[in-house]
Write a structure and sequence with these properties.
The structure is a single chain. By secondary structure, the protein is an all-alpha fold. 83% of the residues lie in helices and 0% in strands. The longest helix is centred in the N-terminal third of the chain and has 30 residues, at 4-33.
Length: 87
């Protein structure tokens, strides 16, 4: 039988993978805009958020941003919930 701890941890890791893939889309767009922009998005999280909402142009922009930020928040919540489960 699989424990709740293991299920929450796996779900958190899968959501984290989704978040990284969506962020990679934003990051690739930023590097196409310019080397300095790409480095800023990579190294400065506040600028990454600004770039995602203000300058990122993609046909599925809302879906990519929701995947990046929504999956990131949910992955943290799932991983914390899994870590605090008592077996």
């Amino acid at each position: 039988m699989v424990s709740v701890h293991a299920m929450l941890t796996v779900a958190g890791l899968l959501l984290q993978l989704l978040s990284v893939c969506c962020f990679a889309t934003v990051l690739a767009h930023a590097f196409r805009a310019g080397l300095g922009t790409g480095v800023a998005v990579l190294l400065l999280p506040p600028y990454g958020l600004f770039y995602g909402f203000a300058r990122f142009e993609h046909r599925a922009r809302a879906l990519v941003l929701a995947g990046w930020l929504g999956a990131l928040i949910l992955s943290v919540l799932f991983r914390v919930a899994g870590a605090t489960q008592t077996g």
